[in-house]
Amino acid sequence: MNPLVSINLVVYNEEKRIRDCLKAVFNQTYKNYEVLVFDNNSSDKTLEIVRNDFPRAKFFKADKNYSFGPGQNRAAKMTSGKYILGLCADVWIKEDFLEKAVEIMEQNPKIGALQAKIYQLAPFATQNNTEQTQNNAELKIKTNIIDTAGFEIYKSRRIVNRGHGIKDTGQFSKEEEIFSYEGACPFWRRGALEDSAVWGEYHDEDYFWYGDDIDLGWRMHLLGWKNYFTPQVIAWHERQTTKRTSKSRWDFIGQRKSLPKNKKMLDWVNLRLTFIKNDLGIFRWPDIYKFLNREIQLFVYSLIFEPYTIFVGLPRFIRYLPRALKKRKEIMRRKKVSTKEIKRWYK
Predict the structure, then answer these.
(1) For the whole model, what pTM was predicted?
(2) What is the CATH number of domain 1-87?
(3) Are the C-beta atoms of residues 104 and 233 closer than 8 Å to each other?
């Protein structure tokens, strides 16, 4: 009736956010859960705060920074819940998050990953909105601006967060199956993770950082599991990168300039590895035209304006390409859906 939920929080130097995140965790109406803080060898006071302020939480200090996906792989093996909440420290979950999530998952055993309606957290500001006071510089407020309602994919293989940066006016008010969940606070069925593992890994550890949520969500689809969005399960996210979807090429360029170069490089590499591992029908017209048109433009843009992406990313891509092809062979051998079923997600 009340299955165990494992809340696995993977962190690295999160002393500024860990308290608020865990306060929300320990304020849940659903009580049958365990909490594991998997620390990626932080050098700040993250674990000290957990140890002193949240004695109910278990914690593990790793010998290095495994990043989010590989950290979640290891955390899952240290916990035993039927369901796993893969939580980031910059997320606050609503008090009935677990209660609603478990109820929905119990009703539909084919859901592999549940996507919450996630709003943006914003900095606390003074009334004139021009500056923050010294005392309130670290405070955040909950907004009604959507951070994500999950990922959607286009025939060009552009992948975007649904609703990213727009005011919630009821656009995402119904439960529905989606292309993929987003990685801020996914609620997984452990059985689906185990069924979707390749070479013993839920998240592909070749990725290190970025894109592993899309890869795993896509693979779940291929293996017969659902990525499912519900507006009943709510959280707030203090996203560290973009705040909205780009509206034009110039807007795209402006947003790209604000991103860390390592993120841009890993995004480029990992998404291409994801296409190779999971894509069905990419070489059919008109998908191949739209895909190549976008890929060529991105490559030329990156070569001119983001050379780090190409000159560091391309060797990395080539290094992991043989492994990605072997993983594709394994995924395709086990897939349970047709190309037609998957192509319905390409807009």
Answers:
(1) 0.91
(2) 3.90.550.10
(3) yes
User: Which helix (H) or strand (E) is 48 found in, with range?
Assistant: helix 46-53
DSSP structure class, residue 180: B
> Strand ranges (DSSP E) for the chain?
5-11, 33-39, 58-61, 83-87, 91-93, 111-123, 140-148, 151-153, 159-161, 176-178, 187-189, 226-237
Determine the pLDDT at residue 248.
Answer: 61
State the pLDDT at residue 260.
79
Residue 278 in contact with residue 219, Cβ under 8 Å? Answer: yes
CA distance 189 to 105: 8
Amino acid 341: pLDDT: 87
Exposure b/e, 167-203, CB count within 10 A at least 16 = b: ebeeebeeeebbbbbbbbbbbbbbebbebbbbeebbb
Q: How many residues does the chain have?
A: 347
The segment(s) of the chain belonging to CATH 3.90.550.10 are 1-87
Cα 321 from Cα 283, distance rounded (Å): 18
Binned at pLDDT 50, 70 and 90, residue 299 comes out as very high
Check: CB of residue 184 under 8 Å from CB of residue 88: yes
DSSP state of 130: S
What span, in angstroms and rounded, lies between the C-alpha atoms of 10 and 79? 13
Region at 85 (left for phi over 0; alpha for psi -120 to 50; beta for the rest):
beta
State how far the Cα of 91 lies from the Cα of 96, in Å rounded to an integer: 15
User: What pLDDT does residue 137 have?
Assistant: 41
Residue 252: band (very low, low, confident or very high) from pLDDT cuts 50, 70, 90: low
169, 122, 124: which is closest to 149 by C-alpha? 169
Please report the pLDDT score of residue 133 as a whole number.
36
In Å, how far are 21, 102, 200, 216 from 277, measured between CA atoms? 34, 31, 16, 11
Q: CA-CA distance, 207 to 323, in Å (whole number)?
A: 12
* Spatial CB neighbours of 199, under 8 Å, sequence gap ≥ 6: 327, 330
Residue 127: predicted pLDDT: 40
Question: Residues 26-50: what's their mean pLDDT?
Answer: 96
